[in-house]
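Table 4 source record.
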Amino acid sequence: MVKASAGGGGKGMRIAWNDEEAAMAFRLCSEEAASSFGDDRMLVEKFVDSPRHIEIQVLGDKHGNAIHLNERECSIQRRNQKVIEEAPSPFLDPATRAAMGDQAVQLSKAIGYDSAGTVEFLCDSQKNFYFLEMNTRLQVEHPITECITGVDLVHQMIRTAYGHPLQLKQEDVGIRGWAFENRVYAEDPTKNFGMPSIGRLYKYEEPKSISGVRCDSGIEEGSEISMYYDPMICKLTCYGGSREEAIATSINALDKYVIRGVTHNIPLLRDVLTEPTFNSGTFTTSYLQETYPDGFQGVQLSQADTLAISSLAAVCHCKEAERARVRLNEKKLKADRTPAARKLVVDVKGEKVAVTVMKKAGSYTVTGPAGNVEVVDNFSLADSVIDTQLNGESLVAQLIKRDPSGQLRIRFKGTA
């Protein structure tokens, strides 16, 4: 692996399998490094096949003390840049965690490091680990370490910078629960897993009201996403008592995250969180390429998904028709000629679904190919997020657009 000494974010890195590729990688990487970082110095290191990218958070002071605060799993990447991180890693056992932590602490003490930093490693399938680099700064993904340890890293950095000794000892640092960080980007995930998208956010709502969710962002409704800066919109941190709970919280937060005006990568993030290999914890840094060999094409709808979308779309159509019948300030009382039932054909990505919709008190009954579906009438077409129930099961979606022709654009399971 040829990589830029001053690099980061996957820039200035290339794999070389022979002498010719090594020479070419050195030339290209040094040019990219000089352009991006103003430093064309290179490193050459061992390339680990089928690796996992795992980093150890360290904390040191000016009195020779240093501790580690466990690891972060950073293997879900595209173009060597992290997309989803979690803490702790589902791969490490206590012995490997202790060994990696001890190596990171020894390194920190050897160089007299006195702040928060990260020591990065690559691990092979046998849990052998190899030093990658040390980032002498606070990482983007530091909130997930704060979640599982209860340690405020920024507070600790300020204390050590002032010269205070660490009050924490290694035995004070444990692991409580699980946390994920989803990097929400203004990118089109169907193009090489994420090519930048620019535009103005005409609607923007973060899912801050959900328990266990933290949003770190620097934008607001009306902000412009330009080509001149990194396209990250937000670091979405989600915490739970277990890995399964943290994943469920992440999915709920992504479903209720409203971003309009730019293309974003929430469809990819959400799909990864429900994918079997990811849920099993057996992935590597090649996960995206192996899971989506033809690229990411959006969520693949099951028959149940198609039925759910067609039922919701039919109800939205009926609610729009009912709203159109109401005339404001109309004093003359007119007879109610609302049809008892509406027969509709819903086209879901080319699949036509015939349904019949009947309005009841507090709900709609949608009769389709698979029988009756009861849709709770607890939402308005003006709601940013539709959070309702179908046959007693939760359904979260977003009605992004509707036009006079009857066409609806609905975001469901991340994909519109």
